[in-house]
Amino acid sequence: MAGKLGSSSRPLRVAVVGAGPSGFYAAGALLQQKEIHVSIDIFDRLPTPYGLVRYGVAPDHQKIKSVTKVYERTVADSRVRYFGNVGLGEEISHDELKSHYDQIIYATGASSDKQLEIPGEELTGSFSATEFVAWYNGHPDFADRDFDLSVESVAVVGVGNVAMDVTRILAKSYAELAETDIADYALEKLRTSRVKRIHVVARRGPVQAKFTNPEIKELGELAEADVIIHLADLILDPASAASLESDRTAARNLETMQELAQRGATGKPKQIHFHFLRSPVELTGDVAVQSMRLEVNELHPTETGYIACDGIGSFETLDVGLVFRSIGYRSAPIPGVPFYEKWGIIPNEKGRVTATHKGEVVPGEYVVGWAKRGPTGVIGTNKPDAVETVQQMLADVQTIPPVADEKADPKAILALLQGRGVDYFTFEDWLKLETIENERGKAEGRPRVKFTSEAEMLAAVRVEG
Questions:
Q1: Domain spans, the chain
Q2: How does pLDDT run across 151-163, given as a tens digit for each residue?
């Protein structure tokens, strides 16, 4: 062996699978510690880095996207390389990663979504919010999706920030959207949208809504849409009222909703209707969605303090032609990597991957982000989460078996990919692509105009190079 694992002569070789926020925060935490010499390769299935920041953050929330400057500094470190367009299980196998890296970090996020599990969910016009968000953000896997925006009435099920993003994008004017980096095809489709009513459906009450205060405030500032909330829906049960004392966000949200309820309709061409204490129980229609049946709920506190809801046997119907569910997300299983189906995560103990839920630790394999803890928190939540995992990794360095020195050589993985003819994307390639996107955007007074096809991304950079 060339030297002790983690020494300058034999750095710890780490693979990070996934180039979203959690992957970059994990790489950054490894670079910041001083005890262990590291060499890090970040892989992503798409040519472009940044994951959720590029394909999940709403196009009209540009300030949030500025966090990528932090990630740029991480990958600028000589100890880090970026390999875009390299998918685990596609261009490289799980076993190959294990043979080339002493430790692997899975930062693959939560790309799947929860189902409503109601009759009619399979009808045309029933979608996950994930699909719509990825479509309007230009994700190559979703660029060919077709959403019928000729309907006048749409339902968005859920009251988290993603549900608010979907609602806002549907409600915004063309002029408002034209200032963003929304995908060109989505901008054109939304320009001709006939959607007039957006029904936001929440199974619990206004205090239990998961959106942040800026999200609900933004809805009240739209050029072409009024927010309709009935004041009667804001009368609280005792348990909800008591919970406000320890929940400042919920208290601010309630104040904002009260203001919006009092404002009511002002004559704008679109309306956003909130329906609290309602659960979808059926979607109906011959081939496509034509209506949604809702059951009225009532709240009751549980022994744990959680405020649950139950249906009371009273029903209502909304005439809608399009439904977006935003009720939670799950990670997708990775071949060869343990998966806990019940929670939709990679099973782990503080970031150490386990063979089963609460099972034995799998040496050398780790997880961060939503794949570790489920879809909770905001982008910044991933930073302490990644630090926790990295602490476990560093503690394990002296006990894990290192891979063979010849496989640990950084040139070895290059030889494997090149020998296989993989057209991988370096970070320099990404910076070239970003420059082109920014220049295209500048010509139109927009932050950027995105490439939405992997083939076009590769061609643009290869021609430019």
A1: 12-111+330-425, 115-327
A2: 999 999 999 999 9
According to CATH, what is the number of the domain 115-327? 3.50.50.60
Percentage with pLDDT > 70 across the chain: 99
The CATH homologous superfamily for domain 12-111+330-425 is NAD(P)-binding Rossmann-like Domain (3.40.50.720)
Do domains 12-111+330-425 and 115-327 share one topology? The answer is: no
Q: Kindly state the tokens that stand for 428.
A: 């320099």
% of the chain beyond a pLDDT of 90 = 94
Q: What CA–CA distance (Å, rounded) separates 449 from 434?
A: 9
Q: Which helix (H) or strand (E) holds 374?
A: none
Residue-wise burial string across 259-280, b where 16 or more C-beta atoms lie within 10 A, e elsewhere: ebbeeeeeeeebbbbbbbbbbb
Q: How many other CB atoms sit within 10 Å of the CB of residue 188? A: 11
Burial class from Cβ neighbours inside 10 Å (0-12, 13-18, 19+) for residue 96 reads middle
Say how many CA atoms lie within 13 Å of 267 toward its Cβ: 0
CB 345 within 8 Å of CB 331: yes
Token pair in block for residue 76: 């600028």
> What residue type is assigned to position 278 of the chain?
R
Q: Beginning with the edge strand found earlier in the chain, give each strand of the sheet holding 12-17 in spatial order.
A: 80-83, 38-43, 12-17, 103-106, 361-367, 352-354, 348-349
- Answer for the pair 279, 202: CB distance below 8 angstroms, yes or no: no
| Rounded CA separation 205/451 (Å) | 40
DSSP structure string for 89-112: TTTB-HHHHHHH-SEEEE-----E
| Element at 116 (helix H, strand E) | none
Q: What is the pLDDT of residues 176-189, one digit of tens each?
A: 999 999 999 999 99
Burial class (CB in 10 A: 0-12, 13-18, 19+), 341: exposed
